[in-house]
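Researcher: Good morning. I'm working through a list of sequences from a screen, and I'd like to move beyond sequence-only analysis. For each chain I'm collecting a predicted structure so we can compare shapes side by side. This is the next one on the list. No need for commentary yet; just the structure.
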Amino acid sequence: MKTVWSLFIFLLICGTSFAQVDFGYFSDLSAQIDIDDESDSTDCIITPVGFSPDGKLAYIEWRYEDAMMEDMPAELTVHFVITDLVTDRELYRRYFIHHGHFDENDMYDVLRENSADFQRTLSEYRIHMLETPSAVFYEFPYIGFTIARLGADGELAGRVIEIRSPKGRKKIADLSADGYRRIRVIGLLKSPYEARIAVLLAVYGDDGCRLKPVGCHLSTGYN
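Model: Good morning. Structure tokens for this chain:
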């Protein structure tokens, strides 16, 4: 199942912090990135938040799980994540849970109520927020760059992530030891500050689907 949500968060801002955002100006745009194509009960959507000049990416991951039984509440989990695209280490993750049925205002409220914490964290990691999140998302192939062993549906054959380009080839990750039963390539996010991308992987394990960004510098490291 691939549920199409009517929500995408368009951050109409000028500046570098959540404190400057009026959350009432979120718009419904086509730039939402739905990463889960499998579960009948869970939906996972990400919203890119911003980049730092030294290779860090911030994003919000929205996970919505339908009630499994009639008397159980649905659950929305909002994850605020910062990852280092140079080392591929997750640097920060904080999540908030909303139980019960919800509308778009509930999603906005999570951000409004925690905007001061978001502000401090973005400042700590020198993250500059995006004025237009849709402007940094692309699909492969991208200006001559593609992923080896990539099926037409985005399914990856194997567990080694290898970039192919006119410059040559480069292995950017080996996920063989992580036990994922499926890996899909969703696309990429391009940093506005350097020649670096985040390859967006939807990885499927025992805990369902989640996003795994893998960094790649476009200019160096090719054989």
